[in-house]
Amino acid sequence: MNNLIIDKRLLTASGFVTRGGVAVDVGTDHAYLAVYLVKEGISKRCIACDVAQGPLAAAKKTVEENMLCDKIDVVLSDGLDSVLSDGVTDVIMCGMGGELIADIIARAEFLKGDINIIAQPMTRADFFRKWLYENGFEIVAEKACSVDRFVYSVMNIRFCGEKKTVDDYFATVGKLDLSDSMSKAYVKEKAQRMITAANGMIKSLDKKAQGADLLSLANKLLKDIGE
After folding, report:
1. Are 1 and 68 in contact (CB under 8 A)?
2. How far is the C-alpha of 164 from the C-alpha of 172, rounded, in Å?
3. How far apart are CA 221 and CA 187, in angstroms?
4. How many CB atoms lie within 10 A of CB 157?
5. Nearest alpha carbon to residue 110 among 125, 89, 140, 133
6. List of E strands, the chain
7. How far apart are CA 154 and CA 34, in angstroms?
8. What angle do CA 118, 188, 205 make, to 5 degrees?
9. Which residues have C-beta within 8 Å of that of residue 17, sequence separation ≥ 6?
10. What is the predicted pLDDT for the residue at 204?
11. Which residues are registered as beta bridge partners of 43?
């Protein structure tokens, strides 16, 4: 792969991609994932898109260096706005905030069809999980992974059409397997942040009850991962 190495976030995401399909890598940056998917025979073709010219130039260079111009299209696009959906089987959104990913999904009506969606929110994952279910999507599978000292979750998502509300517990853990060591690390980090926030709230008269609820949730999460 011309000495290109993809990190564990992208490698985990690749594990959810449909074999032999056409994948769109949103916010492609250097197009490392798109090149990996094609070179490994996971995707027959890819569309690598980004909203900025700088990353797009880097993506084009990567595609050219790997001699994949016939299999990877590099497209300037704000989210999926300029992507033609014909033949697309998979849409991958990694390395963006949960709110941004939700906005991209909301603007792309074709994602309500038979499209395999893979998302890795860098922030606001709890918000993102709630948003998915409130808007008729569901998490099919979820896997945690680490890059350096940070732990992230990669979600495999489908549109099901059923809108519902999920509780704060599910918003935190989603479909993660809590017997998995990496999932435990992910949940532990979230719980510890909750405890810090809860302790601050409890000191405030108007947020005392909210803080107590948050502390209770954090303790339940820690108990469920054996901490």
Report:
1. no
2. 16
3. 7
4. 25
5. 89
6. 21-26, 43-50, 72-76, 90-96, 116-121, 137-147, 150-159
7. 17
8. 110
9. 23, 37, 42, 43, 90, 92, 116, 118
10. 85
11. 21
Paired strand residues for 139: 157
Instruction: Supply the DSSP symbol for 18.
Output: P
Q: Which two tokens stand for residue 215?
A: 């502390």
Which tokens in the block code for residue 183?
A: 């999932």
Tokens of 56: 């797009």
Q: What is the pLDDT of residues 103-144, one digit of tens each?
A: 999 999 999 999 999 999 999 999 999 999 999 999 999 999
Helix intervals (H) in 30-124: 32-39, 53-65, 98-107
pLDDT tens for 155-171 read 999 999 999 999 999 99
Distance CA 172, CA 188 (A): 11
Name the nearest CA neighbour of 39 among 60, 14, 58, 59: 14
Q: Which residue has the tokens 């989210």?
A: 79
Predicted confidence at residue 152, as pLDDT, reads 96
Handedness of CA 67, 16, 130, 147 (dihedral sign): negative
Number of neighbours of residue 69 by Cβ within 10 angstroms: 11
